[in-house]
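Recall that a protein's primary structure is simply its ordered list of amino acids. Everything else, from secondary elements to tertiary packing, is in principle encoded there. The following example makes that idea concrete.
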Amino acid sequence: MSLTYIIFLALGVSLDSFAISVCRGIGETRPFKTSVVCAISFSFFQLSMSVAGYFLGQACESFTNKFNHYIVFAVLFLFGINMFKEAFSKDKQNQKNTIWSIVLIAFLSSFDSLGVGISLAVFDANLFLTATFICIFTIFLSFAGIYIGKYFGRKHKKIACILGGIILIILSIKMLCDHLF
């Protein structure tokens, strides 16, 4: 897996955290504290799930070797479609930014990283490099998302979800085509 793939994959995964952070930043009165909690929580769970997915993928290697390109395509494509769905969701619920609510949403939103980790094992990608990029992008975008949400409102969630979805769908198609042709 090339460095370009790794960077775009990390960006696509971290844009989910960015979108949530933008929403959390709307109306925020303590943006620094909330941005630190978001950056730590999101990066921890994105990193943990990616690593767990990688080892899960390695444990199932004999099965995944036969179907790896289809598995990666399906996982990334479905997560890309899900990000599109989130972009056009009518759910406008605003929640109070307690530490536990942020940690919970960070955990729940990190399951796409589990699938990404599985795809990394399937392609025998460099786990350390990929996890590092995922962590760095997630920290930066989560931190920035709170401030963007505070100052620019809800419209950026849709843009981030659409962009993240496009990146994951393009990566899924490209990986499938590279393997088949």
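The chain has seven helices and no strands. Residues 6 and 130 are 6 Å apart (CA to CA).
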